[in-house]
Specification:
By secondary structure, the protein is an alpha+beta fold. Helices cover 49% and strands 11% of the residues. InterPro entries: Thioredoxin-like_fold, Thioredoxin-like_sf, Thioredoxin_domain.
Length: 221
């Protein structure tokens, strides 16, 4: 999926075009991109965004993944290569794994806010739930149905309704996340998802066999 050149403006256009609708029966979160049109002109403090990390802090190999919750290739990575990567390298202390969200659309922002709502301790567990059921919630219907499907995932993860709604309606946090994503993508030259930074070098999505060979080369084995 490659839409980085116009994604920020596209997000604003989606909001302006009426994508953020609500119904009396199933209200959507407040527009998390409120004020996004001015985000590039207004300085936003992104230092409050927590990096989601797995593995040993001092692991010899650091892998940063850039991914979108609405990207099918990202879901495929998390259902396959990621599980092997975690077993062979993250859980064994050889790889420090950092997950960074990319936002293509409103549902991707909502999914991110629900995953982060659970806190760093539960983040990767919710991450797994979101990706494993992507084909269901992402195709649930219109905005209301998608938001409700994501709420259901949050409840499965143990979040109560009040906590979920508070997270989903936090427009300030959503705007900060969008600004954070912009900073990361521009700094690291991210142009597609999933993309990876392995010990400072950008690499594209690839098979687990290729990932394993790359990691082992970094480890000197």
């Amino acid at each position: 999926m490659t839409r980085f050149g116009t994604i920020f403006c596209a997000a604003v256009a989606i909001a302006a075009g009426g994508y953020w609708l609500s119904t009396s029966q199933s209200p959507l979160p407040s527009n998390p991109l409120v004020g996004a049109a001015h985000a590039q002109e207004t300085e936003i403090d992104t230092s409050t965004v927590i990096e989601m990390v797995q593995g040993a802090e001092d692991a010899p190999v650091e892998i940063i993944e850039y991914a979108s919750y609405t990207c099918p290739h990202c879901a495929a990575f998390h259902e396959g290569p990621y599980k092997q990567l975690k077993k062979d390298f993250i859980d064994t202390g050889k790889v420090k794994f950092i997950y960074r969200e990319v936002y293509f659309d409103a549902p991707g922002v909502w999914a991110s806010m629900i995953a982060r709502c659970a806190g760093p301790e539960k983040f990767f567990g919710v991450n797994d739930l979101i990706y494993s059921s992507q084909s269901e919630w992402a195709r649930a219907g219109g905005p209301s149905e998608i938001a409700d499907a994501l709420r259901k995932i949050g409840r499965i993860a143990g979040l109560d309704t009040e906590t979920l709604e508070a997270c989903l309606s936090d427009a300030g946090k959503a705007q900060t996340l969008v600004a954070w994503y912009q900073e990361n993508a521009q700094r690291d030259g991210i142009e597609s998802t999933p993309s990876f930074i392995v010990n400072g070098e950008k690499v594209s999505n690839q098979s687990y066999a290729d990932f394993k060979a790359l990691i082992e080369a970094e480890l000197g084995s």
